[in-house]
Amino acid sequence: MPREIITLQVGQCGNQIGTEFWKQLCFEHGINPQGILEPFATETTDRKDVFFYQADDAHYIPRALLIDLEPGVIQGIRNSAYSRLYNPENIFARDGGAGNNWAIGYSQAEKLAEEIFEMIDREADGSDSLEGFTLCHSISGGTGSGMGSYILERLGDHYPKKLVQTYSVFPSQHSDVVVQPYNSVLTLKRLIENADSVVVLDNTSLDQIAVSQLHIEQPSFAQTNALVSTVMAASTATLRYPGYMNNDLIGLVAALVPTPRIHFLLTGYTPLSIDQQIQEVRRTSVSDVMARLLQPKNIMVSANTHQGCYVSILNIIQSQHPSDIEASQVHKSLARIRERKLASFIPWGPAPIHVALSRKSPYIPSSHRVSGLMMANHTSIKTLFSRSISQYDVLRKRKAYLAQFLKEPLFSDDPSEFDNSRAVIADLIEEYKAVEREDYINYGQILEQRVNQPQFSPQLQLSQQPPQFPQQQQLSQQPPQFPQQPPQFQ
After folding, report:
1. What's the sign of the alpha-carbon dihedral 318, 324, 327, 330?
2. How many helices (H) and strands (E) does the chain have?
3. 122 and 63 in contact (C-beta within 8 Å)?
4. Minimal CA–CA distance to 263: which of 344, 375, 390?
5. What is the pLDDT of residue 248?
6. pLDDT per residue over 157-177, tens digit each?
7. Cα separation of 366 and 349, whole Å?
8. Closest residue by Cα to residue 98 from 89, 107, 90
9. Cα–Cα dist 24/108, whole Å
10. What ranges in 341-472 are assigned the alpha helix state H?
11. Going by DSSP bridges, is the β-strand pair 353-359/310-319 parallel, antiparallel, or unpaired?
12. CA distance from start to end of the chain
């Protein structure tokens, strides 16, 4: 039985990338813009029900909620060719907006919570076996960050046993939003505490990839959103075209997240193209694809993966024909990565490289036999958090642009939420540093000992200096674990 996933698109950015995601899924499953299954796509074994359900007239409707405090983007969706695809009752738009201010978005979400969660509850009640939620949003604006943060907090209360994965767009290094550092820090705290998995989509890196690899001098939002939709569709491929492993969201999260707070993931994709008609054609193989996925130029986060180490890797390898991939090719590729030391792994455990095989959609022509997506947990992601804190400190030191925040209820009585959020992020940075050391396996015990010390404040003390660990006998390095069962297609 398919495990359903409900997608929440919040804010302008969230609805833009969400719209591209649904377009891609419709292409891959042979569904036209009106939600009608094309005649050539009736004899398939894919799992459309994970992301779609059928109305009484048999047309497919996305399990999606479109939420925004400004009508512009949603009105554009209503006027597009895909206007009849969505359930009108799942579209929530208001006039006024959040003014790129996290506090306004959060306060508006509190006022509108009953209406929003009535929509979410109705959609959840219509699912036979709901597995979790996917949130698409930006961390730098007002609605996606503020309202998205509130929804994250409430989802944990309403559905404590359901998984929450986010596709979070991180801002460019030179953002036009002056209060973006405040918005980012406040949102990151909620992503750390309330999400099970966060797929980081870095605008800086997306722009660099579009310029350097796709040769687009000035990439538009539509073009970068197309890159995002490619990643989102590929990351859900094993859910929609199931094989012998990673057939549900819990399988993906379990393969990548070893401890609750270390759940921020970076992605890489190859071969990359946003125009199916114009592609640079080259010979692709499993070994070639898996090696290219580790190259920094293919990774969609502006972090240097040559520094730090991989906590875990999941490679989703796609092909249209089962004969294109053999078990021996996968094993040979894994051995090559280990022997040539193409990646550095954690010193306190085995080198976990998971490989999931999935079919490509037969309805989208491709010039390449094999393509791949890497979802990886890497300690270099902490550089994005450090950058957010540095930008925040510049504004906070001068108390710049705080007036609009202090007008909202969350900050009017006590503005300490800013510094509390910063401390949570700083603690996470220290934990990522600890992950790179051999004695990380004792991190929880030593943290607990420090918390129990008198006059200990984890939000203040842990953020100022890293925890000190006792000397321990060096752990033995274990080789990567290979699949015991040969890959199979269904």
Report:
1. negative
2. 18, 12
3. no
4. 375
5. 84
6. 999 999 999 999 999 877 778
7. 39
8. 107
9. 32
10. 382-398, 403-406, 409-412, 417-435, 443-451, 458-464
11. parallel
12. 15
